[in-house]
Amino acid sequence: xxxxxxxxxxxxxxxxxxxxxxxxxxxxxxxxxxxxxxxxxxxxxxxxxxxxxxxxxxxxxxxxxxxxxxxxxxxxxxxxxxxxxxxxxxxxxxxxxxxxxxxxxxxxxxxxxxxxxxxxxxxxxxxxxxxxxxxxxxxxxxxxxxxxxxxxxxxxxxxxxxxxxxxxxxxxxx
Length: 174
Known about the structure:
Elements: H1 5-8, E1 44-48, H2 53-68, E2 72-74, H3 84-92, E3 97-102, H4 111-120, E4 124-130, E5 146-148, H5 157-169
């Protein structure tokens, strides 16, 4: 009979090691999770949309999503006793990107001006367009847009997260 003992021997278990707390100078590891959507200064986005009940609902959902990613969201909402164009231009002046929501009822009359101002300041433009909406790129040229079906804005969130990450990584976050 053959000697099979070498195949049935139990290996020695590894010895337990004491884990030491990580010091502040240690590089991040698996024990120290990193946050891919966090940076030294939060990304600031202007959320542009037509102020209608349907678009306001979509915009609120997008705003909640962006906030969850650590993005500071600015809009044109809120009354101020001054010129509307001055108010919006001031809010656009420090943003890293403009998220442009175009719903089935079309874009806001202010959209083109907001896009031109944002582009003049070097901000990225991220159009999110509801399928079937009256949308023509025009001022946006050949900028890629994110489509979504009516009632399914969440379907656009992966692409929106990719756009946010692109804006951060490519150095647009000032």
